[in-house]
Model the fold of this input.
Amino acid sequence: MPENNIIKLIKKSFTDKNFASVFLTSLLSFLLIIVLGLSLVWHYRARVFGYFAKEYFQEMQNANNKDTQVTTERILEKQTIFSQESFVVDAVKKTNPAVVSIVITKEVPKYEAYTDPNQQNNPFGDLFPGFNFNIPQYRQNGTEKKNIGGGSGFFVSSDGLAVTNKHVVNQIDVEYTVFTNDGKKHRATVVARDPVLDIALIKVTPSIGESFSYLELGNSDRLEIGQSVIAIGNALAEFRNTVSVGVISGLARSVTAGNGSGGAEVLDHVIQTDAAINPGNSGGPLLDLSGRVVGVNVAIVQGSQNIGFALPINSVKSAIESVKSTGKIVRPYLGLRYVAINAQMKEKNNLTVDYGVLVKAGANNELAVIPGSPADKAGIVENDIVLEVDGVKLDDKTSLASIIRGKKIGQVIILRVLSKGVEKKVSVTLEAAKDN
Done:
């Protein structure tokens, strides 16, 4: 064998032995490290387990807290979306542009003080002679416009037709100015005053190309006690578009209200609410949470805590439609005067029934039945008792006036009448109420 090949073989053999020795040493060292590591882990296994368990539970708690926070935020968000507060806010935003403030101005005398040197007076007489001074006197120096009152109203059509109370616009020699929610003012004219209810309709002429937001009318017959309502108006004739929230406290109330000029008016079948209604709110809308008008604010009880009244919108609708179609308010009427019967009246007057209405003359010799009226034509006479109208009993919950208001001109109604102890049915054709 050649010498070179022998040398290579010896070197290769030496190299292989050296590699095997190094590999074996490394393997043994690695296994030793693993054994030592496992021994240390086993020795401190409680601490190691506690550390990782703590980290695990902390991570789980953070995740749960995050999920709880997200869930809570979602619940709160849903509660906000469906809370009463959100309904109120949305309703007010939607309706505020259609609610107006009415300001009443009038030319009143303007006076100035002056002194007349020829008119002097000594209040001490001879005790202090010469102690004279001029007595101030007053004289008229032209006239000036002054705000003498105010109220509220709301648009019922885009062309500027608005509803308010009759007692708000019952003066003739005055000017009526309407302020919309955007601060603009408009001259208003009275279109019609209702001969039956305390409502009136006024008109604001829009500019060319201008139109007004107006309110949707609801159904006051579906109201329930405890239902939430919103009142908006010109509180105290100073704070425009003031919002108050309350509930329906009572339905079909009958109250006697003063008109501010010494007179009184019976408000029949009205809505009672604890929503704050102040002087100046008169004529403003009473809204449900959808923003629909369910009443017209009309009166408060002076000195009370949140006892206000509103005319139900269903009794106002016919007046609005009448003005839209004829330009005036035309109401159906029977043409008789009457007194409601109750248990006390039955006993006092020896009547045979404790409900219905007794046809009776007025206090100032006013006739019980108006000549030529529908009641007169139907043969109703004084001392007759009307018990029912179209099968509806007349009692403390249902009045004759409220039923007639809900009828139409030309409509035939059936009255159940007790006349001289005999019951009979009488057909009456309703006619338009006379202007007087």
Observations:
- DSSP finds seven helices and 22 strands in the chain.
